[in-house]
Design a protein that fits this description.
alpha+beta; rod-shaped
């Protein structure tokens, strides 16, 4: 681009403009509107009309408005999508920890505690079947695995259920989820 002394120029990548006062090879000295003398390389300057600013030199009014409108649009937050199956299925949670079933387990034998936990599981499973609740999560804890093994034996006696480990992220290792088939005859 050919620049001459007295040309009005805009500085690229900065909000500066001025008049060319000196040209020395690839270096151009401009005087800003505030009276400062600044040096720039030729490739950093654009010739402009007097009093024209950088925005109107590089963009049309409509493109500036479009860019501003796009930047000002608020982005809608993406909602966490649940599968339809998970969204509409009520899940019954049954905590079989002994301290959730009785005020104090003092004086109870291990056998009595286990029977109480299994009876509670049976009652809750029968309740879920009668109320057409499709999923029940039995929280049994990890321990030695005796309660989990007994629960699996109990669930195996029902023809209309399948059971599997519950969601690890939500319950960890100590829970079993039971899915109840609704159209099968119940025991």
């Amino acid at each position: 681009m050919n620049f001459e002394l007295g040309d009005h120029v805009l500085v690229l990548d900065e909000d500066l403009s001025g008049v060319i006062k000196e040209i020395n090879n690839q270096t151009v000295t401009i005087e800003t509107g505030d009276g400062f003398l600044l040096n720039f390389q030729i490739n950093e300057l654009v010739k402009s009309e007097k009093n024209q600013n950088l925005k109107t030199a590089l963009f049309s009014k409509t493109s500036i408005d479009a860019v501003v409108a796009e930047k000002e649009q608020t982005k809608r937050r993406q909602q966490v999508k649940k599968r339809a199956k998970d969204r509409y299925e009520p899940t019954l949670e049954v905590d079989l920890h002994i301290n959730q079933l009785v005020k104090s387990s003092r004086g109870m034998a291990n056998h009595d505690m286990l029977n109480l936990q299994l009876d509670t599981a049976r009652w809750q499973l029968d309740f879920a079947i009668s109320k057409r609740i499709q999923k029940v999560v039995f929280i049994h804890g990890v321990g030695q695995g005796v309660l989990k093994m007994e629960l699996e034996y109990l669930f195996g006696r029902y023809s209309n259920v399948k059971y599997y480990d519950a969601n690890y992220q939500k319950y960890g290792l100590g829970a079993t989820e039971v899915y109840i088939y609704q159209n099968a005859p119940s025991n």
